Amino acid sequence: MVWWHWLLIILGVFLISLPISMWYIKVAPRKPSNEGDWVSDNAKTASVTVDGRVVKIKNVRDFTWRSSKDHDVKWNEEEYHLDDLIGLYYIVEYIHKFKALAHTMITFEFKNEKFLTCSFEVRRKKGQKFHPWTGLWRSFTLIQIWATEHDLLWLRTNLRKNETYLLPCATLPEKREAMLLQLCKRTNQLAEKPEFYHTLAKSCTTSLIREANIVTPGKIPFSLGEVMPGYSIKPAIKFGVVQDLGGYERTKELARIDKIASKLNSQKGYSKAIRKNLEGNFTHPK
To answer: CB of 258 within 8 A of CB of 162?
Structure first.
């Protein structure tokens, strides 16, 4: 073997080993933490206690937003009665012109127009900005935000002005209840033992799917929508996660909320207003 063959082999080994070495030297030693100088909307972690049929959540976010950087800070301790749980919605917010990129959440509906939204997000420190690439390298702790629906959605539909969909789920009452309790269990796990966010393996959507498949094993098989949540609406209809309101396009048309929300002047009455197009077109499974 001539000398330059050996040189190519050595170069190849170096190129392969370099990123592996960098991972173990720079990335692997990082540890997730719930301690840090966090941005205000990530400042507190939630915790949950369940007392019979009553769920008590500490640090439910209820901000009033005037702009994406100007808001009134408010964290509440709330009680939710499982007997009052009547509905569940899947939310898709497109965050980029590349439609594969989206943020997903779910909302629980209770009697008396009370809504509780759950969002798995990156926990950002002051000065940090999220990018899908940096989300691959243990750069962010995973946080589970519980908030009023008008907090989490107003920020997206009216301030960021992102295309957003609110899709009623085809979930039976006992499964809605089990999903809420499973997410509460996950809340306490993350509060006690923090974990890293990962753009592909532990994102907003993969986190929701993980909990849904614990409640109903195999309910949501793997699809492109799991790693590219902007494409998750069609498989969600196919797998019976959300209700089919007359085909894919018709379902999206009825579920789109940002156009309705853009006409509102305040967060007051937000949740009722954004459901205008859905009224009479679906019922929660009973």
So the answer is: yes
